[in-house]
Design a protein that fits this description.
Layout: E1 6-14, H1 21-24, H2 44-47, E2 70-73, H3 85-93, E3 97-100, H4 105-113, E4 117-120, H5 123-131, E5 136-140, E6 145-147, E7 153-155, H6 160-168, H7 172-177, H8 180-192
Parallel strand pairs: 1-2, 2-3, 3-4
Antiparallel strand pairs: 1-5, 5-6, 6-7
């Protein structure tokens, strides 16, 4: 995982509520155990027509979405079944943060473990973001704030351990492996007692 300390990007807005993980990455694409290549299947049933051609009206297919790494999503994003493929598809596509008023717990946990920042904001800030697609915002993990172009800084909840992992580009296993020497020393001391 790449470390995330700050993000600065234009936003792309997908205002639909209750977007579930099967809409994010349809089940037929869950045949892989690697992250690479899943971005092309992100929102596949919305992005492509039956013939496989991109739908011009879908927001991620529009020119202004190119290069945007912050997705402003509708309420209750990531509901449905648990699948790590959903945050994998988003990050492989180039999305590094999802902002909503509510992000489903299982999706949120999978996102944090896979280098995707879930940002939960109050309805007033969310409404502003929905109404201003393409706004350039910045997200600072150290202070857990999202800053609007107006200068307003909005705090969002982020657990300290999740913040540490995101800022250092490690998952839970990487965190433990980095402490292998201390763990071995502790185990050796316990064995002598």
């Amino acid at each position: 995982m790449e470390p995330i300390r700050t993000l600065r990007s234009r936003t792309v807005v997908l205002p639909a509520s209750d977007v579930d993980t099967d809409q994010i990455i349809p089940a037929r694409f869950l045949t892989t155990t690697t992250r690479e290549g899943l971005g092309k299947h992100l929102f596949a049933d919305w992005r492509y027509g039956p013939d496989g051609a991109p739908r011009a009206e879908f927001v991620l297919n529009q020119a202004h979405a190119s290069g945007c790494s912050i997705l402003i999503a509708g309420h209750n994003f990531g509901c449905g079944s648990s699948r790590e493929h959903a945050p994998w598809a988003l990050t492989d596509f180039g999305i590094h943060a999802v902002v909503s008023t509510q992000i489903a717990d299982i999706f949120r946990n999978n996102a944090l473990k896979n280098g995707l920042l879930p940002v939960i904001v109050e309805p007033a800030a969310h409404r502003w973001l929905i109404e201003h697609p393409g706004a350039e915002v910045s997200i600072d993990l150290d202070s857990s704030t999202l800053t609007l172009p107006t200068g307003e800084a909005i705090r969002f909840p982020l657990e300290p351990f999740a913040r540490y992992c995101l800022m250092n580009g490690v998952d839970e296993l990487g965190f433990l492996l980095a402490r292998e020497a201390q763990i071995s020393a502790y185990e050796a001391r316990r064995g002598q007692a």
